[in-house]
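In keeping with the milestone schedule agreed at the kick-off meeting, the structural modelling team has produced records for the first pair of proteins. Each record is given below as a sequence line and a structure-token line. The laboratory manager (R.T.) confirmed that both were archived under the project's standard naming scheme.
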Amino acid sequence: QTHQQTGMVSLRLQKRLAASVLKCGKGKIWLDPNEVNEISMANSRQNIRKLVKDGYVIRKPVNIHSRARVQRKNEAKRKGRHMGHGKRKGTADARLPSKVIWMRRQRVLRRLLKKYRESKKIDKHLYHVLYLKCKGGTFKNKRTLVEFIHKAKAEKAREKSLTDQAEARRLKARAARDRRAARVDEKRGVESEKVTTKDDDETPQVAEKKPKKKADKK
């Protein structure tokens, strides 16, 4: 009744059908105001499709929602702007949890240990010791771990050189003992030969003297 009084035509049906055909909301539908009479005659989806083809019914373009200002603000935040005390809402642990920091640190250290083990810079025994030290929180960053590895390797090399030197000294002393023992045995052999030859020379005289002594005793 209201439309008849004002002389306007209701296009609610056409707008609903057009929204269904064009798969959008009714607010996105534009109906040509110069072709109201022809549009009002369309009472089926097929007729609406024809009107869409003719250009009397159009789906409005998507409104532009610019992110330029947001991107500009985020870029400034990366530089540290707009990040003061007045802009912070949560606690320090809520903004960057200590658990996240711990996980990142562990992953960095374990990745380094794995790389060093695969490249034969450390053996599996040292790897295991360092892995447990990382887990215990001994190293706060990668630099301290690398320094510890260098020190450990240097200490191990020093111990090896000391053990090698001690072993060399031990072998040298053993060889010297063997040589001395050989010389002593050789000397004793020569002396025993001399004694035997001397005994062979003196045996007849000793044999003659002995009976006399026995006779004297009697």
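The second protein of the pair:
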Amino acid sequence: PHHITSILLQPAQCPATQSTMLASTSSLTRLPPRGGLLAPTPVIPQCPPILRATSSSVAASEPGVSHQPSGQEQGHCSPHPDAVKRRIAAEQRNRQREQDRQTEADKHKQGMHWWEGAMPANMTNCTSTAQYKALVARAARENKLLVADFFTGECYVCKTLYPKIKSIAEQQPDILFAKLNGSDPALVDLFNNFGVTKVPLMHLVVNTQLVNEMSVSLSTEKLGAFRAALQQYKPKPASAPTAALPATAL
């Protein structure tokens, strides 16, 4: 009957029913038109924006620095101390990378190679076998550990590792570092005498004696092993002689 048909065609008046119908309708896949094939349109979920630490959030976590986060920053950074430390460490790494890139660009403008330029006071760029032998004798005379860094100018791993070695040298001023470039014809005989066929390679020398030979890279394991070896073989400072006690105190 006509009145039954009109009732079935009328939309539901209940708000809950309308929302259910709209939700079910929006999730339906578009059907192809008659007479042709059309691939269904997939429903792609919208992902939330990626949360990332900002410079201002890192500055806010440092002591003595006041910062009011903006509306965009609020709720995006965890206040947990471990998260704060990770953001600060990431910011420091980014600054170090930017500084290394700027240093490399400056060297390129000046026509310098990546292993040349300013270096810590305890690091020497040896250009001859005689200079290296003199450094070995100095380390023995001063009771210091000597690290011989064998590298070549064409070695990409050596290039990426060099800033880290410089940083370690700055943190260990009581250790001497010798840079030995296998691309230098004056040092080819030295490489052959030590049997160096792969770089980067580190020799740890104590009292003119080779105590350890290790390959180092930017991997966490190898860097950790290198740092541990430095602490293991670094000579302990000689203790001051104990003064003799007076006879009355014996």
